[in-house]
Design brief:
By secondary structure, this protein is of the alpha+beta class. It is built from 4 helices and 9 strands.
Length: 198
């Protein structure tokens, strides 16, 4: 008996997703889309055993690098009373799972100007000095009072040269009427912090 191509592809896709993996990061959605109910949802970025990465619900708060295993669970019920299931991941209790070793972690604080990112960063780093360090921000803007040593200044041509060479791992451009403002993080700065064990 042959399987129709559509069913074959669906089964292949499901078996690909039904693999164990390791948690790379996770976050909690405090206000998920309406169809998922009102409870916060824990979502993880998981690297599956075949090397692919997926976003999926987590059934418990994991540790970064923890091994997780898939299982089907009820996601929600539609207005037409159809039950929709999803693949969610959980750590199996009583089963030893080796922890993955990562070179280091990055905690990113995001938000508009003036909300207190620098204040939180400063306090966090002071409280956990043995474990954390600030990554200097490479920028093309001019120095300003109150920068507190968080920036490394360069010109736009050098910034672009480093970006094209792949030496800047994240960049952003903030519009300005007076100067070309680009910001980024150099891979070598992050790796130097990881080498310190922070």
């Amino acid at each position: 008996m042959t399987t129709p191509p559509v069913i074959h592809r669906a089964l292949k896709k499901q078996s690909k997703r039904m693999q164990p993996g390791a948690v790379l990061s996770f976050t909690k959605l405090m206000h998920p889309p309406a169809k998922f109910g009102r409870k916060p949802r824990l979502i993880g970025l998981i690297e599956l055993d075949d090397g692919s990465k997926i976003l999926a619900p987590l059934l418990s708060v994991p540790a970064i690098g923890q091994r997780v295993h898939p299982r089907m669970r009820l996601s929600h019920v539609t207005d037409e009373a159809l039950r929709v299931y999803e693949v969610a991941y959980e750590a199996l209790t009583g089963v030893p799972a080796p922890m993955r070793v990562f070179p280091g972690y990055i905690l990113a604080l995001t938000g508009p100007s003036g909300v207190g990112k620098t204040t939180v960063r400063t306090l966090f780093t002071q409280m956990f000095l043995d474990y954390t360090a600030n990554v200097p921000i490479l920028t093309t803007r001019t120095a300003k009072p109150g920068d507190e040593g968080e920036y490394v200044y360069t010109d736009p041509h050098d910034f672009e040269r480093l970006r094209r060479a792949g030496k800047i791992v994240a960049t952003t451009h903030i519009p300005s009427e007076t100067e070309r403002r680009q910001y980024g993080y150099r891979a070598e700065d992050i790796e130097a912090i990881w080498r310190q064990g922070k």
